[in-house]
Amino acid sequence: MVTVYIEEAHAVDEWPIGSRICYTQPKRDNDRIRIANDFIKAADYRIPLLIDPLSKNNPFSQVYSPWPIRFYVIDRMKKFSYIAQPIQGSFSLQSIKNALDEAIRECK
């Protein structure tokens, strides 16, 4: 199982919301890597995190249109086992947790 870090949906220089988001939209791959590393440290994140590279025109974003609020779980067979679809601008975090739990069980 992996995670993919994509564009900042609410970068402070584009579409800021509240005060929790404190990053400008990355301009280079290294900017995105720095932000991802900050997240990994702050959240003690343990799932491998891939970067959607700016240098290649954000290929994951181009193919899957993963935002504003989309979550995909990719199973050990490298297939989407879960695709979250928002309902009225939101969705159940429990559904995402369940999909992740199932993917983790499959990997063991």
TrEMBL record:
Coiled-coil segments on the chain, per record: none
The entry's keywords: Oxidoreductase, Selenocysteine, Thyroid hormones biosynthesis
MF annotations from Gene Ontology: thyroxine 5'-deiodinase activity
InterPro entries recorded: Iodothyronine_deiodinase
Gene3D superfamilies associated with the record: Glutaredoxin
GO process terms (BP): hormone biosynthetic process
Similarity annotation: Belongs to the iodothyronine deiodinase family.
Record's function text: Responsible for the deiodination of T4 (3,5,3',5'-tetraiodothyronine).
The protein's name: Iodothyronine deiodinase
Species: Rotaria magnacalcarata
